[in-house]
Amino acid sequence: MNDNINNALFVQGFIRMCDDGFNQGWHERNGGNLTYRIKPEEIEEVKSELKDDGEWFPIGTSVPGLAGEYFLVTGSGKYFRNVILDPWANIAIVKIDDNGEKYKIVYGLEKGGKPTSELPSHLMNHEVKKRVTNGEHRVIYHCHTTNVIALTFVLPLEDKVFTRELWEMATECPVVFPSGVGVVHWMVPGGRDIAVETSKLMEMYDVAIWAHHGIFCSGADFDLTFGLAHTVEKAAEILVKTLSMQNYKLQTIEPQEFRNLAKDFKVDIPEKFLYDKTTKYVINTVDTTENKSIIRKSFKMKLFEGMEDEYERRHNELWPEMKEMIHEYGGHNYSIFLDKETNILYGYIELENEEKWAKSADTEICRKWWDYMADIMETNPDNSPVSTDLKNVFFLK
Ligand code: 13P
Ligand code: ZN
Fold first, then answer.
1. Other C-beta atoms within 10 Å of 89: how many?
2. Ligand 2 centroid, distance to 212 Cα (angstroms)
3. Which of 42, 69, 118, 233 is catalytic?
4. Which end of the chain is more exposed for a tag (fewer CB within 10 A), N or C?
5. How far is the C-alpha of 369 from the C-alpha of 329, rounded, in Å?
6. Which alpha helices (DSSP H) does the chain contain, by range?
7. Residues near ligand 1 with C-beta < 6 Å?
């Protein structure tokens, strides 16, 4: 009786993709969701089996560019592993109203339920992608890819860092995702705010990483979209493995090699991703022309009497901009110890480069921090802490 719908290639492709994703380990429990913008001729094929008497529900955002479109979607709280066993209990066809404000279920979710909680993100991404690809992209896929998620705990959450690090992991990457990947900082999932941030990235990229959560991929069909997620996750897995062996690379694919690759494979890759890495990030290629060993610097400062708790409190609440600045200027593993008997503070920091670190003193945020700390410690006339370098007399690795 449902043969038309069950035999439809877009339905079969959708079911297969859910199963493939589950088998990759990207869909624990109800994790992840998939949506497909159905072609007019495909909807025509199954139209006689759709019901039109369903209730309209608010989407939670506005997608006028998708007015009147039909989507095949996974259900909220439904498990990808069950889709192949009982598709229509777990997935549905929904129709968008003429204003792009509401949806209704026209087929499926037979045992109750509603479309994925990420419907706002999916539809806003669809709307952007439909526009920027002239209607070519039809699939939006959200999955919980283990290795990409792991990387969001150790790499700076910047588009250019993720793009470049992933590209370096497999030669195919710049060809498969030449425009790069975008990164969304951690946000509450399931609502309009994260949908807005993700859809902004989809203007430029086909992949958006949600920090500590998963990825969103967009593509023209199921193969391309699944293949994209698969390639990104594979590159992430290689990076996780590489970093598990050691925190640097002895060799990698260099910017000029990417340019050569792009030329031969006829893809455009933005120069912004081919930045000079030797000075910027911890995960770096080893520069064999210069012995770039870490500089271990120690120094002492003086705290005013009775300010111990206040000093600790202010550091526990260190401003995020200050933290970022320290990393940006090549400071790592920064510790400060207090000798309670003398009120002397002992600082220890690992530096990439002394000159670069010295420049951090000229940043606005550093000056602001010094001004803020001046009432509880000994300072110079410009409010910088009075600091004396200490001599290293022993080191054992
Ligand atoms: P749903 O079950 O509502 O699709 O949510 C799963 C998920 O991954 C949320 O980000
Ligand atoms: Zn999710």
1. 17
2. 10
3. 118
4. C
5. 15
6. 3-7, 9-23, 40-46, 80-83, 87-90, 119-132, 146-151, 159-169, 173-176, 192-202, 222-245, 255-265, 308-316, 320-328, 354-359, 364-373
7. 30-33, 74, 76-77, 116-118, 142, 189
pTM over 0.85: no
Q: Are 10 and 73 in contact (CB under 8 A)?
A: no
| Ligand 1 midpoint to CA 100 (Å) | 22
Cα 209 to averaged position of ligand 2 atoms, centre (Å): 11
- The protein residue with its alpha carbon nearest to ligand 1, atom 4, reads 116
Nearest ligand for residue 189 CA: 1
Taking a 5 Å cut-off on Cβ, the residues next to ion ligand 2 are: 214
For the stretch 89-115, pLDDT in tens is: 999 999 999 999 999 999 999 999 999
What's the pLDDT band for 288 if we cut at 50, 70, 90?
very low
Place 251 in a pLDDT band, splitting at 50, 70 and 90. Answer: confident
Per-residue pLDDT for 279 more than 50? no
Residue 200's Cβ-side half-sphere holds a number of Cα atoms within 13 Å equal to 8
> Nearest ligand to the C-alpha of residue 80?
1
